[in-house]
Specification:
Blueprint (H helix, E strand, L loop, with lengths): L10 H19 L6 H12 L4 E4 L6 H11 L4 E5 L7 H4 E6 L4 E6 L6 E5 L6 H4 L3 H6 L1 E4 L2 E4 L5 E6 L12 H5 L3 E3 L6 H11 L4 H4 L6 H12 L5 H16 L3 E3 L3 H17 L7 H12 L4 E2 L1 H5 L4 H11 L7
Parallel strand pairs: 1-8, 1-9, 2-5, 5-8
Antiparallel strand pairs: 3-4, 6-7, 10-11
Helix pairs in contact: 1-2, 2-12, 10-12, 11-12, 11-13, 12-13, 13-15
């Protein structure tokens, strides 16, 4: 079976997607210096209807990236500062009694936004972190047995400090599994850091950032991404990659079926942003490390050898046979 479709989708629609995605990337990169790969992955997760986890040391621009994305697509954005005393209701909202109407009224929490920035998510307790589980998976919030839908697009961008830092809690496995991908910002190159001093020293770049797309356009892009063709061999290749994590002796917890779905969704978005209306194995290989690694738990032997899940995943990608393109 061929990896490419027999019938292509609307070329004009795909061109529009590439054009809008390019404008959003340029807008974000005007604020985030020298991190084009990070910006591209962030936009890939948005178009894949997913959520992003950014892990790195303080001060490298994690929160700035999330704010730049929200402002560039003219969407609503709320920021939640996670702290040890934060309660689940502080995120989802609460029903309050109205003295005038003598009825309970729902007061929406900060999760009711297109882009929700969870700053330092691993400084809150696991109970509070789990308040995002329903929001991220089902795009809804249930409070006092009443369900409230969340407006699309909906994306959680959570930042966390490395777990070795003081005052942090590891994210529960169920929480990590709901993030489509995990990335690291990394320190900027000297040239990019010099540009940052020039641009950020006198003014705040976010104040000058104008929206280059609307939420309606983003919803249209997401619908276009859903139509990107994935052949049966490529689907089987995605399953083989995920299955290899479950059988690896270096891992005591492999990737879930949800991870397979997230990998295919991200591959569709990645292909569309390059102007293709079909997914190829290269898309899966490029994304596997960022989409799968954060879901994996190394075995005790791998921990003793200081083999991180990212290293194990890279080895698996090299070993799993790639489907024939014929």
């Amino acid at each position: 079976m061929a990896l490419t479709p027999d019938v292509t989708h609307d070329d004009e629609r795909l061109e529009d997607l590439v054009d809008v995605a390019h404008r959003i990337r340029q807008a974000i990169e005007s604020v985030i210096e020298g991190k084009s790969d990070v910006v591209r992955m962030t936009l890939t997760v948005l178009l894949a209807e997913g959520h992003l986890l950014i892990e790195d040391v303080p001060g490298v621009g994690k929160t700035m990236l999330a704010k730049a994305l929200a402002r560039s697509i003219d969407s609503s954005a709320h920021r939640v500062q996670f702290t040890p005393d934060l309660l689940p209701s502080d995120i989802t909202g609460v029903s309050a009694y109205n003295q005038q109407t003598h009825e309970f009224e729902f007061k929406p929490g900060p999760v009711f936004a297109n882009i929700v920035v969870g700053d330092e998510i691993n400084r809150a307790s696991p109970k509070t972190q789990s308040a995002l589980l329903e929001c991220m998976e089902e795009h809804q919030v249930t409070v006092d047995a009443i369900t409230y839908p969340l407006e699309a697009p909906f994306m959680v961008i959570a930042t966390q400090n490395p777990i070795e830092m003081e005052g942090t809690y590891p994210l529960p496995e169920a929480q990590r599994d709901r993030f489509t991908a995990k990335i690291a910002m990394g320190y900027p190159e000297p040239g990019a850091e010099l540009d940052m001093l020039d641009h950020h020293g006198a003014a705040q770049p976010l104040d000058k950032l104008e929206p280059v797309a609307t939420t309606a356009e983003v919803r249209s892009l997401i619908r276009a991404v859903r139509q990107v063709y994935v052949s049966q061999p490529v689907k089987r290749y995605a399953i083989d990659l995920v299955t290899s994590t479950r059988n690896s002796p270096d891992l005591r917890l492999g990737a879930s079926p949800r991870a397979t779905l997230h990998l295919i969704r991200a591959a569709r978005a990645h292909a569309a942003m390059t102007g293709r209306d079909y997914v190829i194995p290269d898309d899966l290989q490029e994304l596997a490390g960022q989409v799968l690694s954060h879901r994996l738990l190394p075995s005790l032997e791998a921990q003793g050898q200081r083999r991180h899940p990212e290293q194990v995943m890279a080895d698996l990608v090299r070993r799993v046979p790639v489907p024939d393109s014929k």
